[in-house]
Amino acid sequence: MNSSDCICYKPPFSHLNYDTVELGIDETNGRFAEVSIQTCKHCQNRWLNYFIEIEGFSSNIRWFKAIIDNALLESLTPENSLELIEKAAWYFYGGSYYGSGVSVGRGKIIV
Ligand SMILES: [Zn+2]
Fold it and tell me: Among 11, 31, 42, 60, which has the highest number of CB atoms less than 10 A from its own CB?
């Protein structure tokens, strides 16, 4: 099977399709973003997941996720994870801040 046909490429996403490992919190600029690695149970792709929720604002959830190469896992930290998503060929993003649905982006992420 071509891995891009996998359910992990097709929003809406369900956490049930992944084994999730929490990497930690990125406290850069006080954002307290939750960083995790989600391994797809079906195709074994590893997705780097970056989740920001600004407390006190109901429509302020933002998340980004990109496929991460196994070779990058060793050097991965919560603090450099957003940069790695920006460097990926493309990424998914969404959350209430952006309205409904999931979009595909690439390049610089403004947080
Ligand atoms: Zn998959």
Answer: 31
How much distance in Å is there from the Cα of 19 to the middle of ligand 1? Answer: 11
Distance of CA 13 to the CA centre of its chain: 11
Instruction: Give this prediction's pTM.
Output: 0.91
How far, in Å, from the CA of 91 to the mean position of ligand 1?
14
Between the CA of 104 and the centroid of ligand 1 the distance, in Å, is 17
How many domains is the chain partitioned into structurally?
Answer: 1
Query: Structural domain of residue 30, as residue ranges?
Result: 3-105
What tens digit of pLDDT does each residue of 41-81 get? 999 999 999 999 987 767 789 999 999 999 999 999 999 99
Q: How far is the CA of 46 from the centre of ligand 1 (A)?
A: 8
Judge whether 62 lies within some domain: yes
| 66 within domain boundaries | yes
Residue 111 covered by a domain: no
Output the pLDDT for position 57: 67
CA of 66 to the centre of ligand 1 (A): 12
